[in-house]
Amino acid sequence: MLLLTRMFSKKKIREDFMSNFGIINHNVSAINTYRTLGKTNRGLNKNLERLSSGLRINRAADDAAGLAVSEKMRGQINGLDQAVRNAEDGISMIQTAEGVMDTAHSILQRMRKLSVQAANDNYTTYDRQRLQKEVDELIDEMDRIGQYTEFNTKKLLNGDALGRANSLDKKVMTADVVGIAASADYSITVVQAGEASNVHGTTIFQDNNGDALSDLRDLGISGDVELHIEIDGMTRSVELNELDNINDVIRKINKAEIGVQAGIHTYNGNDYLTLTSRHSGSKFNISFGNDPDGAAIAMGLFGGNADSVDSTQNAIENDVNAPWLRFNSGTDTIISVVNITDQRLFPTIPPGIANESIVNSDVQSYRVLGRFVSNSDVFTEKELSTAYQKVTVGTGTSIMIDQTRTAQLRDSGLLKGINMTIDEDLDYGTEDLTNANLVGATADSASVANYHFAAIPAGVDGGVQRGNNIFSVTNGGTPTSTNGISLDGLTAQEQTSVLSVRLSVRDTRQIYHIGANEGQTITVDYANLTAEALGLTTSLRGAGNMFDGVDKLDNGTTSNKLQMNISIETQASAERSITIVNDALNVVSEARSRLGAFQNSLEKSVDYLNIAYENQVASESRIRDVDMAKEMSQFTRNQILIQSGTAMLAQANQKSQSVLSLLR
Prior knowledge:
Distance between the termini: 43 Å
Shape: elongated
Strand content: 15-25%
Radius of gyration: 43 Å
CATH topology of the domain at 196-328: Alpha-Beta Plaits
Structural class: alpha+beta
């Protein structure tokens, strides 16, 4: 059988040879050899390409599915690589802030030590005033830390890296973000602007001893004395001399910047000393401490603390035309707040009050959050956590806690982490808003929204209904009521007493992207370490025009950045300062510990990101990288085949030349 097979094969070869022997137009053997050589050459080129690049897949044709998978992996690898850098940059940013907080801790510890030192009664007022100067400088330095700490020009510790609050009209209200605040928009109406405490002296500054001079000697004061002025539990001392006249007293009080403004009230040719708190509300009532030298009594100054009410006695007795009281307590500030946040942007609606919504053509939802009361011009999270409502008591009205809205606020993120400050110059108010008295023209229901934004377009009315009147900015439109009142001719200040002010709060906490895909982030909140946010000082927000209860003071300051720092000038004030500085230390410690926790988290993120990066690279390598040993063996094989194929192609080309022998 084997013999027959061999004989058949030889016969077949002879037949093929003989069948192609005389053909010269088509050299099938050469064509076959050329085709095989081309295939081998392409394989060799791929071998060279893979060996030179180190990649198994250099183009989609090499492995279409593998290329698609490896490209996705490359996206992950590049994302993880950048995520590691992002996390490391975040760590650097945190370290910048945390390092500065170490200095803040040192400053506060020094302030606490000074407070404890001043609380010891072996020090005189002069000694404590020297200590107070250092405290004032430390407070300024603390403020600089908050305002000047930056990373890549971004401020970290002034609240900007925590949140931002922008008031549409800063002449009415300003706000600061001091904690984690939800992004929201509010319409705020000043229902009652608080009034400042006022003290009207009862003693006339005049020559009583016949020396033709009107000074403190005429009031029975001799030598050097101290006038203690207490505001918000903090007492500052003003040094007076028996030769000081009323102008000297006013100059020294105002120069001390202790939270009050001194002035002269001239009545019937007589001069009286008046003091007005630079901040409204009973919290900043004026009193005179323990009046160690009797200076306040001598000048006829009678004050009261935060719980005091107006005096029952007139400053100028036996004159029916002189109604000024010895002491007027500061009054509360009341605001009404409406949540006007576009729910498509920031879902903020508190639960349980859907029936109070107003949805207009702009699909904006409004929620009345209630009234809020402060015993000063500042509304902190404490004041903004308790909602009140107006109730009728007999023939009058009062306010009481609105338990429902208070609970709703507690369950929501609204009005948290922000401090609102009403301008000191406001001495007017309006009714608070309810859904029943939001008024808009029926032709354009969007006017309700426009009203809140203080941008009512031409021909559209919107305003607040008070009694039978509808206060509206018509801009050429027709009031929606026969009793409508146009505000077109009023000043901006007069309009503000009716219209609301928009406050936009935005969460600007720092977001670090520490993953390869969308949403893989970590949010870091940097504290607001300005002196006011820490409670170390209180700033005047307003034009600075102070009132003495009668007329504007001509000799007062008009600065809009007046500060009232904590005081250690008396033993009692120093005791209270210890607690205030302790609270500030706790805030800094908490903020610093949070940053430390964030830094630890980011460092762990770097660790696992590097592990993920390593594994992704290994996976992508298995798909895309070439096995050099295997590829080299194939390269050697193809190289040999190229050489042999080239030789055989030459032989095949020579085969047809044998036909020439027939021509001899």
